[in-house]
Amino acid sequence: MIEKNIEANNLFASVLSDVKPSPIHAFDEKVSDLPNILKLTIGEPDFSVPEHIKQAAVAAILADDSHYSVSAGTKQLRQAASHFLADRYDLHYDADTEILTTIGATEGLYAILSAILDENDEVIIPTPAYPVYAAMTRLNKGNPLLVDISQDNFILTPDHLRAILANHTHVKALILTNPSNPTGVTYSAEALSDLADVLRGTDVLVISDEIYSELRYDDQHVSMATFLPDQTLVINGVSKSHAMTGYRIGIIAGPAALITPVNMVHSFIIMTPSNPAMAAATEAFDSSLSASDTEKMKNAYRERRDLLVSKMTALGFEMATPSGAFYIFAKIPENLNQDDVAFAYDLVDQEKLAVVPGSGFGPGGEGYIRLSYAASMAMLTDAMARLSSYCENNSATRIG
After folding, report:
1. 38 lies in the same domain as 72
2. Same-domain pairing of 234 and 340
3. Within this chain, do residues 77 and 164 fall inside the same structural domain, yes or no?
């Protein structure tokens, strides 16, 4: 018998050639094993999961809650999520038909895109943006429309959106991130209402990623679904608000007509979420302690934000003061290397400080760096000392 060697490239979908690993994680992995490295790269809360939430997961395990749930998640979790959204944001969804439990916000996003996209459908992605959005769009054979909003204070304006819709006839969705990763910018109620006025009456779906909604510092979070409920799917979860990234529980909320087909796709992807994780998320959403759990974290993040903004501004960095999430997105001073990738690697080489190059977040990110301040004050103080040392030693260097 003559064996034929299989060419691996022939086995996989051609779309994979257009998709690259997340630049955030790719950069983080390259520097993680360096001795004495201080990383402000990954959006990973440094807090412990509150004890009462841990105990809910333990209780589920001890009760042998080890069998299949339904793909949409336990009714208890969906009821808790429904209560949370109504209590915190005045959003009202039926727990039985309008809420879906996902494996983190990321799987929820993938399930939505898989459910709505036909080949060459377009998805508007205001940038700088979380790079997973464009990659998932491509994986589902859609075309990401990367729209640079850096000149508009990192906010998508109604006029900009109107112009995009006038020039693109295959737009299926807009991904709106509020608060934003990487900039920390938030949308006001007025800004959302103006965007809703442009979209109302169109067939464009809004995928509203609100995973950082509880980490909003200066005012109350407002959801796009408040203004455009019939065309909006809200993504949320417990990963950022309760430091539960490893539990992998997110939610999608929206009208039943939108949730039902997404749930069908979701059920084929994961079958059901983990029962102990859902029990913990139920406690996180529904406990009387939930708001105070998050408030403690938010107060700490605000203090850390203020430290970084103050120190980095003094060093010549320019940034929008984050009003949500836990990231600084800062423009590199003109007297330093303007190539953000080269800047980031130089910073690692010289000071053992790791930040994420801004160009990885798409158009408008070039010449910026992103720092996560989900780290202790001691780490951030050390990081600022290292950054100051780098700026002092390289202030004459300018490329680009």
Report:
1. no
2. no
3. yes
Task: Verify that 117 and 16 share a domain, yes or no.
Answer: no
Question: What's residue 22's pLDDT?
Answer: 84
Residue 184 above 90 pLDDT? Answer: yes
Q: Is residue 56 part of a domain?
A: no
- Strand pairing category for 318-319 and 250-253: unpaired
- What are the residues whose beta carbons fall under 8 Å from the beta carbon of 166, sequence distance 6 or more? none
Closest CA to 118 of 176, 170, 168: 170
Q: Does residue 1 register a pLDDT over 70? A: no
Which of the four pLDDT bands, split at 50, 70 and 90, describes residue 229?
Answer: very high
What confidence tens digit (pLDDT) does each residue in 288-325 have? Answer: 887 889 999 999 999 999 999 999 999 999 999 999 99
pLDDT of residue 5: 62
User: What span, in angstroms and rounded, lies between the C-alpha atoms of 308 and 373?
Assistant: 8
Domain range holding 310?
10-48+292-394
Contact 271, 68 (CB under 8 A): yes
Q: What is the dihedral sign for C-alpha 362, 364, 370, 372?
A: negative
Q: How far is CA 274 from CA 65, 67, 70, 99, 186, in A?
A: 9, 9, 10, 17, 32
Instruction: State the pLDDT confidence band at 287, using cuts at 50, 70 and 90.
Output: confident
Mean pLDDT of 67-82: 97
**Looking at the structure, do residues 204 and 312 belong to the same domain, yes or no?**
no
Q: Give the model confidence (pLDDT) of 191-224 as tens digits.
A: 999 999 999 999 999 999 999 999 999 899 999 9
Tell me which of 290, 312, 345 is where a domain ends.
290
